[in-house]
Design brief:
511 residues, alpha+beta, FAD/NAD(P)-binding domain, five-stranded parallel sheet, 15 helices, 29% helix
Length: 511
């Protein structure tokens, strides 16, 4: 904070705590509808080591990488480092599945559909092809068909960093005041009404921000941590006792390797597609029929190519992306020298990209079936508080992350189906430890997708926020975070979160 907010000024219409993807999209939509918005972000204009300190956490369950290397406290939040993959939740994710306790949302996919469409534009994908069949036609191929596995594409934001994508809005909109290095540490409350939020810098400067409505867009883990802090003694939003419970991530596991029978046909099906400046990644989901028959969680997979050359090619691609995007200052001298040193490899990438409209894959690489599954909606994983305090005086996060037998069963089911369904294009070789829960469990990693812990529910007895994302028991406090997801499917969470942000903007504008 370069200065203190004017305490004599009229309160803003909405105060948004957090300037990541959800906060930025919410601010844009509110500004378009004539609202004056305060954005309060704990980090700075870019990632800073000292601003990351509040994210240092205690892990008491399985190892969890994303809690430390998948969260970024800065303008743009985690979009400053993510890949930008966009996927809707499946229709089945919104309905109760009798074999999956706790499954289903209290809102329908149909209700969220128009907000998914509006989010696409805010993600920079308005000109992308939204029809999978049309993408296959663009590259003159037919959509692949496999028994019990359904082919689909994910789409990737051409500019994943929302602080850069929406920089003009953030820098020039008269409707939005953005405060950086302002870490919100506590609420100012009077009963069920929030009167303000207290913030402070790491150097100790303190301020209070006031508005008529407050939205906390802090990320999945940080949202739970903030509302668990002991200073909010009565916690009216936690009458259910579920705050911090049923945390979920997406499990990613090297479930099998693939040996193509016809390499040309295999790569036609599974290599990433690049068309008219947009990236599309082929994936295969387990069909709803087999999920029901096998009583499986929702699960999908993608092909992962692994080799030293693949790693170099990925780094070259990132460097070129920075340069073409005008981010010259972000490209280090070592990255530029690597471009020159590996120019023959870069030339092969460019040819494959510009002529064939597909990703370059190095010959002889190891091919893995990367299976990613949802976790049990009533997962045993929890977010609680450590006894240790961060540099702001707040208790740190303690994460107890579990991978259940049921979740490993879903991965096993997928591999067995893939062995049969993909037999014409590849030999599927299961991981040797797949049938041993204790040996395979340590191979299951998190996907940096932080969901659950502040469950969306119709009743205060069943969750933490209501159908409009308002905290149960509060008049003017909302949570716009993947923490509210009752269950999470296998899809990357950001697209659904941004659809919820657009929906929330409409709700707040109507108040």
């Amino acid at each position: 904070m370069q200065a203190l907010p004017d305490t004599a000024a009229q309160p803003a219409d909405v105060c948004i705590v957090g300037a990541g993807a959800a906060g930025i999209v919410l601010a844009i939509e509110l500004a378009r509808q004539g609202k004056h918005v305060l954005m309060v972000e704990g980090g700075g204009p870019r990632i800073e080591e000292e601003s990351q300190d509040p994210y240092r956490s205690e892990i008491i369950g399985l190892p969890h990488n994303g809690i430390h290397i998948g969260r970024f406290r800065a303008k743009g939040g985690s979009t400053t480092r993510w890949g930008g993959q966009i996927l809707e939740l499946d229709d089945e994710d919104f309905i109760h599945r009798e074999w999956v306790p706790g499954s289903g949302w209290p809102i329908s996919k149909q209700e969220l559909a128009p907000y998914y469409s509006r989010a696409i534009t805010l993600e920079g994908l308005a000109q992308a092809n939204l029809s999978d069949e049309a993408v296959w036609r663009e590259i003159h191929l037919k959509s692949p068909a496999f028994p019990d596995l359904e082919s689909f594409f994910s789409r990737w934001c051409p500019e994943p960093d929302f602080s850069y994508l929406h920089r003009r809005f953030l820098e020039t909109s008269p409707a939005v005041d953005l405060w950086l290095h302002a870490n919100v540490t506590a609420l100012v409350r009077e009963g069920s009404k929030i009167l303000g939020v207290k913030a402070r810098t790491l150097s100790g400067v303190e301020a209070t921000f006031r508005a008529h409505q407050y939205v906390f867009a802090l990320g999945g883990i940080e949202s739970c941590r903030f509302f668990l802090q002991p200073e909010q003694a009565d916690k009216p939003w936690n009458r259910s006792g579920l705050l911090g419970h049923h945390y979920q991530d997406h499990i990613i596991a090297p479930a099998a390797t693939l040996e193509p029978r016809n390499p040309s046909a295999f790569h036609n099906i599974f290599d990433n597609v690049f068309s008219r400046g947009f990236k599309y990644q082929p994936k295969l989901r387990l069909s709803p029929r087999i999920q029901k028959q096998q009583r499986s969680l929702n699960v999908a997979a993608m092909v992962i190519y692994k080799s030293d050359t693949e790693a170099i090619a990925a780094q070259l691609k990132m460097t070129v992306r920075k340069l073409l995007g005008g981010k010259w200052k972000q490209a280090s001298s070592s990255e530029i020298f690597a471009l020159l040193r590996h120019s023959p490899l870069l030339a092969r990438q460019i040819y494959r990209y510009s002529v064939k409209h597909r990703a370059y894959v190095a010959p002889g690489c190891r091919i893995e079936l990367g299976v990613h599954t949802e976790q049990d909606p009533l997962s045993k994983s929890t977010i609680t508080l450590s006894e240790n305090r961060d540099s702001l005086g707040m208790l740190r996060t303690r994460l107890d992350w579990h991978v259940s037998d049921n979740e490993i069963d879903a991965i096993r089911t997928y591999v067995k189906v893939a062995q049969r369904s993909l037999a014409s294009v590849a030999r599927v070789v299961p991981h040797p430890d797949l049938d041993d829960y204790d040996r395979f469990r340590p191979l299951c990693g998190d996907n940096y997708h932080h969901m659950g812990g502040m469950r969306l529910s119709s009743s205060p007895s069943d969750g933490v926020v209501d159908l409009n994302l308002r905290l149960h028991g509060m008049d003017n406090g909302y949570v716009c975070s993947a923490a509210v997801y009752p269950n999470s499917g296998f899809s990357n969470p950001t697209h659904t979160l941004l659809a919820l942000a657009v929906r929330l903007a409409d709700h707040l504008s109507a108040i």
